Amino acid sequence: MSLPLLISSLLTVSSLTLSSVASPPMVETLEIKPQIINPHLPKSLSSSKRFEGSSNLVNLKYHMGPVLSSSPIKVYIIWYGRWAPQQQLLIKDFLLSVSPPSSSSAAVATVAEWWKTLALYTDQTNANVSRDLVIAGEYSDHKCSQGTHLTRLSMQQVISNAVRTAPFPVDHRNGMYLILSSVDVTVQDFCRAVCGFHYFTFPSVVGATLPYAWIGNSGNQCPEVCAYPFAVPSYMAGGGTPALRPPNADVGVDGMISVIAHELAELSTNPLINAWYAGEDPTAPTEIGDLCEGVYGSGGGGGYMGQVLRDQQGRTFNLYGKSGRKFLVQWVWSPVLKACTGPNALDYLEKH
């Protein structure tokens, strides 16, 4: 992985039905056409994007390792610290939107359509990344068993505790373990070098090699770094590009979901750091999310986000979830197109 300012990763790296949420149904959400916008990123926040869809600069290779091809992918969530139920529902709504709906939807700009690009990645047996994802378990570590400051090593102890004492199995075949830290938890390199990362556990600590990802809620610590474009640096106050309004009115969690999408895309295609990445150094690979950092829609690159949508309440988004909830997440690199891709805001509007 690279070390971008906005979304970066230093090293890389009971099935659930969503309970009722006061979200508008999809058909009502889509009755009013959103506005197309293409915000410009400040130079200081866009200079790290070296690729911007140019296949001439990308040498993405497969290194013979596994991808998460077993279906469904099972996500085991560890809620570290104190979380509001509505924040948890928002994140779970995004995760549960990855699987394709049982019936076709009128909307093409969905989380499930975004994940289709990941399903193009295969392993050496030609098995594709699974398109189905379930939340297989949740564990609340609200007392912060490893303290309110986590290091990379103590984070693995959090997973060890969950596997050994909580209702989490050791799922080698199709499990991924997701540590989500709350606003009051600090983490090694958080805000300074990373907003999230993925890696795998050490058998000496956890007793098994398991792919995992950590993402922190930056709402009270560094939203201008890890929740951009929903917050802007203080030096930009009163001028420059204004902050965009988050789709779910929670700067920290809306920004966090974009980082979750970035890390899950890379975790599913490079779970043990020996599958899909560019570069020759496996301790610092450039992965499919890094290649498209800062690109959220058609026309992205060169300091622009690309064409995204703004609804009647001024909320900025580019994807719909299953319940009609809105999200803003970056595009990912396609091994077929050899470019950044995702549901296209312009295409979506032309069809509706």
Question: In terms of topology, how is this protein built?
Answer:
Elements: H1 26-29, E1 35-37, H2 43-46, E2 60-62, E3 73-80, H3 85-96, H4 111-115, E4 133-141, E5 149-150, H5 152-165, E6 175-181, E7 186-187, E8 196-200, H6 203-206, E9 211-216, H7 223-226, H8 251-269, E10 276-278, E11 308-310, E12 316-317, E13 319-320, E14 326-327, E15 332-334, E16 339-341, H9 345-350
Parallel strand pairs: 3-4, 3-6, 5-7, 6-9
Antiparallel strand pairs: 1-11, 2-10, 8-9, 11-12, 13-14, 15-16
What does this structure look like?
- This protein has helices at 26-29, 43-46, 85-96, 111-115, 152-165, 203-206, 223-226, 251-269, 345-350; strands at 35-37, 60-62, 73-80, 133-141, 149-150, 175-181, 186-187, 196-200, 211-216, 276-278, 308-310, 316-317, 319-320, 326-327, 332-334, 339-341.
- It is globular.
- The strands form six sheets. Strands 4-3-6-9-8 form a five-stranded mixed sheet, with helices on both faces. A three-stranded antiparallel sheet has the order 1-11-12.
- The chain has 352 residues and is an alpha/beta fold.
- The protein has a domain at 26-31 and 59-288.
